[in-house]
Amino acid sequence: MAETWRQLRAECENCAACELAATRNSVVFGVGDEHAGVLFVGEGPGEQEDLRGEPFVGRAGQLLDRFFAAVGLKREEVYIANMVKCRPPHNRDPKPEETEACLGWLRRQTRLLSPKIIVCLGRVAACRLIDPDFKVTRQHGQWILKNGVWMTATFHPAALLRNPNQKPDAFADFLALREKMRELDIWRGDAL
Ligand code: URA
Ligand code: SF4
To answer: Which mutation among 39, 82, 160 tests ligand 1's pocket best, with the greatest number of atoms within 8 A of CB?
Structure first.
């Protein structure tokens, strides 16, 4: 029988495949429309996400929501997940072995969702999902077709909080995302 979202989430919420299991409060599985055409992939839960069990609900998440709003996109019409589902202590970068241990969950989420577009938020996702040498500052907004899925990367919203001068570039990436969604006929924003 085919796997369902409910089964996958339940299984993931019991995962102890890496050391992050020991310090987490919640497994932050993912949120959004389970039929969305666009999958956003961040790095890993921060403090607020770990407490609430939902991705991008802290300060970085509020900024992400403002980018969504700026281009007429809603959080509820995309799917949002992270490279690692459990918070790395003190928000350190996930270790390669943690990312590898966790990747199976993201793969299964991607298989269930079957998105047309994957947007990597920041270096960790871009380097693992697009190209190990990916440089966000130089390659953000570029599109590549990989196994039938359009992939792109933009700045991580937490990085934009540190470097607000990059916000216009990030906004341009979101506008380009909207264009790509229109091109692929998955844009729902324009009312008839
Ligand atoms: N940063 C991330 O990469 N993911 C979250 O869910 C929150 C902050
Ligand atoms: Fe499992 Fe991923 Fe959490 Fe590690 S980070 S325990 S692999 S769900």
So the answer is: 82
Assess whether the C-beta atom of 60 lies below 6 angstroms from ligand 1. Answer: yes
Nearest to 4 by CA among 44, 35, 37: 35
The pTM for the full model equals 0.97
Distances from the Cα of 82 to the Cαs of 105, 156, 180, in angstroms?
A: 10, 12, 22
Residue spans of the domains in the chain: they are: 5-183
Return the DSSP state at 43: S
60 close to 46: Cβ distance less than 8 angstroms: yes
Strand partners, 119: 40, 152
d(CA 188, CA 183): 12
What is 5-183's CATH number? Answer: 3.40.470.10
Over the stretch 31-61, which tens digit does the pLDDT of each residue have? 999 999 999 999 999 999 999 999 999 999 9
The answer, yes or no, to whether any atom of ligand 2 lies below 6 A from the CB of 17, is yes
pLDDT tens-place string over residues 10-35: 999 999 999 999 999 999 999 999 99
88 lines ligand 1 (CB under 6 A): no
CA contacts within 13 A on the Cβ side of 24 = 26
Hey, what amino acid is at 143?
W
